[in-house]
């Protein structure tokens, strides 16, 4: 019983520390309202999250590159939407919006890339068979890529299904408190869901491309 209470206390303490750090970063971003500061904070958070969550060191660069490119790419329309729907500046909006996309894309990219690497190593004969029968390199990789997309996106889609039923009122309340109208909050939430899926797909594809480029030629 004491061990369980201690474990709960440690988890709660860790969550409070993380919340305090996030609050400090957001305060700095809001105080200085600098786009370069927002970009630097988002890059630092992304690097920390990748190093903390990716176990295979050979996957770190691929996951980091895919997550950064897709998060920034799909953050732009969301930041513009926030700027249009509220008085929040683009520099301030970039960190929370990019952070939401980072949380969505990181897990999908990490899980999908890990599944892809495992299947590529386990089914080398399948790839060689397809290439030997006239398939191109990309065509031979298609089954592995589709499997990686399925494995990577499944956790995200399950979380979205749960979020849609249980977390939607909470998120909409937060958006309303932040200054968005009910219609604007609903519109932004819909855009966020679409952007999260699209960013996860792009991030995983970039990571797979980097992974293939860095692989040993013997498996090709």
Walk me through the topology.
Layout: H1 2-32, H2 35-53, H3 60-85, H4 90-122, H5 124-132, H6 137-177, H7 182-214
Describe this entry's structure for a reader.
The chain has 220 residues and is mainly α. 87% of the residues lie in helices and 0% in strands. It is built from seven helices and no strands. It has helices spanning 2-32, 35-53, 60-85, 90-122, 124-132, 137-177, 182-214. Helix 3 (60-85) runs antiparallel to helix 7 (182-214) and helix 4 runs antiparallel to helix 6 (137-177). The longest helix has 41 residues, at 137-177. The radius of gyration is 20 Å and the shape is globular. The protein starts with a helix and ends in a 6-residue tail after the last helix. The model has no long low-confidence stretch (mean pLDDT 77).
């Amino acid at each position: 019983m004491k061990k369980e209470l201690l474990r709960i206390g440690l988890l709660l303490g860790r969550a409070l520390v993380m919340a305090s750090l996030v609050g400090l970063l957001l305060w700095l971003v809001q105080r200085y309202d600098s786009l370069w500061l927002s970009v630097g904070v988002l890059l630092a958070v992304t690097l920390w999250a990748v190093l903390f969550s990716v176990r295979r060191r050979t996957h770190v660069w691929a996951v980091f590159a895919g997550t950064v490119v897709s998060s920034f790419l799909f953050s732009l329309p969301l930041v513009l939407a926030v700027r249009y729907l509220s008085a929040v500046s683009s520099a301030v909006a970039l960190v929370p919006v990019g952070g939401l996309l980072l949380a969505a894309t990181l897990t999908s990219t990490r899980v999908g890339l890990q599944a892809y690497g495992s299947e590529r190593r386990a089914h080398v004969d399948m790839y060689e068979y397809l290439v030997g029968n006239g398939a191109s390199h990309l065509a031979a990789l298609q089954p592995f890529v589709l499997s990686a997309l399925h494995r990577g996106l499944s956790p995200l889609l399950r979380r979205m299904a749960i979020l849609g039923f249980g977390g939607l009122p909470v998120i909409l309340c937060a958006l309303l408190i932040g200054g968005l109208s009910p219609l604007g909050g609903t519109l932004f939430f819909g855009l966020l869901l679409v952007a999260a899926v699209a960013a996860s797909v792009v991030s995983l594809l970039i990571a797979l491309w980097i992974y293939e480029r860095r692989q040993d030629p013997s498996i090709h």
